[in-house]
Design brief:
Elements: E1 10-14, H1 18-29, E2 37-42, H2 63-66, E3 78-82, E4 86-90, E5 95-98, E6 103-105, E7 108-111, E8 115-117, E9 130-132, H3 136-153, E10 158-162, H4 166-177, E11 181-185, H5 198-210, E12 214-216, E13 221-226, E14 232-237, E15 242-244, E16 247-250, E17 254-256, H6 259-263, E18 274-275, E19 287-289, E20 294-295, H7 304-318, E21 332-333, E22 341-345, E23 355-361, E24 366-372, E25 379-385, H8 391-394, H9 407-410, E26 428-430, E27 435-436, H10 437-446, H11 452-459, H12 469-482, H13 499-509, H14 514-521, H15 530-541, H16 557-561, E28 564-565, E29 571-573, H17 584-596, E30 600-603, E31 609-614, H18 619-628, E32 641-646, H19 660-671, E33 680-685, E34 699-704, E35 707-712, E36 724-730, H20 732-749, H21 756-762, H22 766-776, H23 782-795, H24 799-804, H25 807-810, E37 828-832, E38 835-838, H26 841-846, E39 850-851, E40 854-855
Parallel strand pairs: 1-2, 1-7, 2-3, 7-19, 9-16, 10-11, 10-16, 11-12, 18-20, 32-33, 33-34
Antiparallel strand pairs: 4-5, 5-6, 8-17, 13-14, 14-15, 21-22, 22-25, 23-24, 24-25, 26-27, 28-29, 29-31, 30-31, 34-35, 35-36, 37-38, 37-39, 39-40
């Protein structure tokens, strides 16, 4: 807050949201010592916070973590009046009056009052349990209500989100995070109808429903009913339908907060919003308007990127410069975990003569469309559903030449190689902060920025929604390569070290917790990049159970419950079957468990049996029976050893020359539970006929008359690689030593999520350099590698056995906080080929399904 007297121009900003914060930051950072004064007046009793990241509140983010850079308001030229809304503008006297009765004079007034969330004009929208999804207060009240109502009713709640746009889907994800069974109600024929065409909307619907969120389209709510206590109880629809609901969220759009402007007789659009010109000037030369309250070209848009662009224009104009608002960039990207959606440019192909190039894979839930000019050369827009990885590369190219075959941008990775045309300087890379590719290049060459973090600080590119970070990184890397420098290998913005450097730092320091490591070697609280990476490092070096202490909070979803999350919200159970060898008694146990818990069973390509459809609260009971029968975790959920595949070898096969099964079992038991930068797979073939497909594995072993041949670097995935011959004629002991060192050297030195093939290709000397490390000890580290593997083998503990023996760990496996053994009502199955599978939306609607594992009526 201002404590120093200033005699320069006084700017009063009405509103204290993201756009107001951006305007003040831009104005004062470019004032060049000019004597400006700024007063910000906000009605919320908080500092400005990130509304774009509001859903992060339900993922554990605190209000403090959502707060925008506080240093902007700590400038001695700024006075911040919070919790004191403006009630009147006196244009003639150039003053504003607040609720507290304070009169504040201005030389320039900036209206940044934003918008409010609309509610449907239907009976019952004021019932208790009806919410909007707009502010931190809104989401705090929502969470408090859900927790209290759930305790009151003694059961999980049912929720409805009215509105299937961007915000509605995020709200549905928030409800699901609160263990509320949720349905999204949309009046049009598809979700996100403002951004997606019908095929894209249908693809998104499948993705949303696969997460256990129901979708009801072409449905108009006409009434909300309440129980005797006045709390919402259900919804009635125009077609006569009815849905029970304990909590309702309205996300049916926003309305500009232009009441101050109307009262002050400023020109306002008939449909709402203060009219502005390209310089953000209102009908009063002393008043500007920015953000959602501003109406430009007949539109008010509820996106942060146009608001930031207006803030920059307004600041430039006040400082005497020339700037014009370029119009609305309506590009959007859905921020819902597990659902990848983006829309940009002329997504609906409204440009005359526009062409569509479409790629669709309904099985994988992918729909991609590029809109091109009539000569198929200029990119006009696009829609990406299910895989929006190309969004960062494509959006900056809108309006320019695509630079190659459009199919290259749409095909899955590993198909046609995407063009590598350089993004033009004028291309907008970060729409949130209006940063072009040229600005980023200038920051590299003129400001000395060498990584994404410094680019964020210098240009603000990637500092808002983050969807452009990969493109920023690509541009920075390209520019540094031109000058002979290298892009920073920092793990993330919280650690300047690479994963390899961080591994060494933790190993040498002996630190055993994330908090201790980040306090000594990093900054901040960490993120979803560094936390799982460090969890893997600590697992290797410390060896504690993944759910012990604070390190349990670092795990990914799968590691956190030691099971693979499936598309319908259930989990898979994968016991280890070393080498694919299993006794009849073991088969009977697995079969009985699958039958008792009504699980789908499948023999995998890794020669083990997966059991699908287990509910969260069932996992400990299932695993207790498996552990009692001698099984242990197969680590299908972790970045660790998965399987060691084998043929029957010389034991049975007339062509086999070595005991491939015995070696496969030995390798799997030796490396079980070994955490690594990426998953690991091994294979052992008993002869050169290669029935175990060992050359498709990270480590492949093939038997010969002279001993074992060892292959390394075979990977599947988007970019398949054949393994290359590493050593020939090894004895059993020589083979084990070579694999020990190979795996540990990989774990010690690979980057985060780097598979073995690209890892050793990046090593100095490539495969020959790797041979010299493993066999000639060229780096003098073989003793360390041997010791690290010996420690792993000696300290191995089955994670599931340890879990079911610890009541505290077992308590984590509850479907709902207040009803731990209650089945998740969103799980629904039908029967196909004699086994349960997730029911489709149509099968759910007619009710002839298995629900949460309990047979109601079976569709056959």
């Amino acid at each position: 807050m201002s404590t120093t007297p200033h005699n320069g121009p006084h700017v009063v900003v009405v509103g204290a949201g993201m756009v107001a914060h951006r305007f003040v930051d831009s104005l004062l950072s470019r004032a060049d010592g000019a004597d400006w004064r700024v007063t910000i007046i906000g009605e919320e009793p908080r500092h400005p916070y990130d509304r774009v990241g509001l859903t992060g509140f339900f993922g554990g983010a605190t209000p403090d973590e959502l707060t925008l850079d506080p240093s902007v308001l700590e400038d001695d030229r700024v006075e911040f009046l919070r919790g004191d809304a403006v009630t009147r503008i006196d244009r003639r006297g150039r003053t504003v009056r607040t609720v507290s009765g304070r009169d504040v004079s201005y030389d320039h007034l900036v209206l940044a009052t934003g918008s409010y969330a609309a509610k449907l004009a239907v009976d019952g929208f004021t019932h208790e349990g009806c919410f909007v999804y707009r502010t931190l207060d809104d989401v705090e009240r929502l969470r408090a209500f859900v927790e209290a109502r759930s305790r009151e009713l003694g059961r999980p709640l049912t929720g409805m989100v009215i509105g299937g746009g961007l915000l509605g889907l995020e709200a549905a994800g928030a409800l699901q995070g609160l263990d509320v069974s949720c349905t999204v109600v949309q009046s049009s024929d598809r979700l996100m109808s403002a951004q997606l065409d019908l095929p894209g909307g249908n693809a998104l619907r499948r993705l949303i429903e696969s997460r256990g969120i129901k979708v009801k389209t072409q449905s108009i709510t006409t009434r909300l009913d309440a129980d005797r206590g006045g709390k919402v109880a259900g919804l009635e629809f125009r077609d006569g339908g009815y849905e029970r609901a304990d909590v309702v969220i309205f996300t049916v759009g926003v309305r500009p907060r232009d009441e101050l402007a109307r009262d002050a007789a400023l020109e306002v659009h008939p449909r709402g919003g203060v009219l502005i010109d390209a310089g953000c000037q209102t009908s009063d030369p002393h008043i500007l308007a920015v953000g959602e309250v501003a109406n430009y070209d007949g539109m008010c848009v509820g996106l942060v990127a146009p608001g930031y662009a207006m803030a920059e224009v307004a600041a430039t104009r006040l400082l005497g410069g020339e700037a014009s608002f370029p119009g609305y960039d309506l590009s959007t990207k859905l921020k819902l975990s597990g659902v990848d959606v983006a829309s940009f440019g002329d997504a609906f192909a409204e440009t005359p003569g526009a062409l569509d190039v479409v790629y669709a894979d309904p099985v994988a839930g992918v729909y991609k469309k590029l809109v091109l000019s009539d000569d198929a050369k200029t990119l006009l827009g696009g829609i990406l559903v299910g895989d929006a990885s190309a969004y960062g590369s494509l959006r900056p190219l809108v309006g320019g030449a695509l630079g190659g075959d459009p199919a290259a941008y749409l095909m899955p990775e590993g198909g046609v190689a995407a063009p590598t045309a350089e993004v033009p300087d004028e291309a907008l890379v970060c729409s949130c902060n209006s940063v072009t590719a040229g600005t980023i290049r200038n920051a590299v060459h003129d400001e000395g920025c060498t990584d994404v973090t410094s680019i964020k600080a210098c240009t603000k590119a990637g500092a808002a929604c983050g969807s452009c970070v990969m493109m920023v990184k690509k541009i920075v890397g390209t520019e540094l390569a031109k000058s002979g420098a290298a892009l920073s290998s920092a793990l993330c913005e919280h650690f300047e070290m690479s994963r390899r450097q961080l591994f060494d730092a933790v190993r040498v320091s002996g630190l055993t917790t994330f908090s201790a490591v980040i306090e000594r070697f990093g900054v901040g609280r960490g993120c979803d990049i560094c936390k799982p990476a460090l969890a893997s490092i600590l697992s290797t070096l410390v060896g504690k159970h993944v759910l012990d202490g604070e390190n349990a909070t670092l795990q990914d979803t799968n590691d956190h419950v030691m099971a693979n999350l499936q598309k319908d919200g259930s989990y898979s159970v994968v016991p280890r079957i070393p080498g694919g060898e299993i006794t009849p008694e073991g088969l009977l146990v697995i079969g009985q468990v699958a039958k008792d818990f009504n699980l789908y069973t499948k023999i995998t390509g890794g020669q083990r049996i997966d059991l699908f459809g287990a509910r969260l609260e069932q996992l400990p009971e299932i695993w207790k029976r498996l552990v009692d029968a001698g099984f242990e975790s197969g680590h299908a959920y972790g970045k660790s050893l998965r399987t060691v595949k084998s043929c029957v070898g010389s034991t049975w096969c007339r062509y086999g020359v070595q005991d491939s099964v015995g070696m496969a079992v030995q390798l799997e038991l030796r490396y079980r539970g070994l955490r690594s930068p990426h998953k690991l797979k091994l294979g052992v073939s008993g002869c050169a006929r290669e029935c175990a497909e060992a050359r498709g594995k990270d480590v492949g072993v093939i038997a010969t008359e002279a001993g074992w041949n060892m292959y390394v670097g075979g990977n599947g995935g988007f970019t398949p690689r054949h393994a290359v011959l590493f050593a020939e004629g090894l004895s059993d002991d020589e083979l084990l030593t070579a694999i020990d060192r190979f795996l540990m050297y990989y774990i010690f030195t690979a980057d985060r999520l780097q598979r073995t093939a690209p890892w050793f290709e990046d090593l100095d000397g490539g495969i020959e350099g790797l041979r010299s490390v493993i066999f000639d000890d060229s780096l003098g580290i073989c003793a360390d590698l041997d010791a690290a593997m010996a420690t792993h083998i000696d300290s191995y503990e089955d994670e599931w056995k340890a879990t079911i023996e610890d009541p505290e760990k077992v308590r984590r496996f509850a479907s709902f906080v207040n009803a731990p053994l209650t089945p998740d009502p969103s799980l629904a199955y039908t029967v196909e080929r004699g086994q349960p599978r997730p029911a489709t939306a149509e099968e759910r609607e007619d009710g002839r399904v298995l629900i949460a594992g309990t047979t109601l009526e079976v569709r056959r």
